[in-house]
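Late entry, evening session. Most of the bench is empty. Finally got around to the prediction I had been postponing all week. Sequence below, unchanged from the version circulated by S.P.
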Amino acid sequence: LHWQQVLRNVQAGYVTSIELDELYAKEADGNLQALEVLAWIYAKGIGVEPDLIRSFSFYKKAAELDVSGAAENAVKVYRAMSAAQKAELAQ
């Protein structure tokens, strides 16, 4: 898929293993948009099981790379975590 089609699919809530593989490949190549999209889909559970720990990790990485809004989103995800999830982060 072309990158713009992947983004349109994600926006439409359509995330399959094809879109997910493309997102991970782009993120591995340093694509900051892919990093943010991965954080978002894991926070919302779009095409994947919701995973706030994984979402937080992606947002934290994006914040470290000075992506606008990523630090604020990391805080929001952290606040939504259970005490057990926060404890898991501390390990």
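Two things to note before I forget:
The chain has six helices and no strands.
The chain has a mean pLDDT of 95.
Will write this up properly tomorrow.
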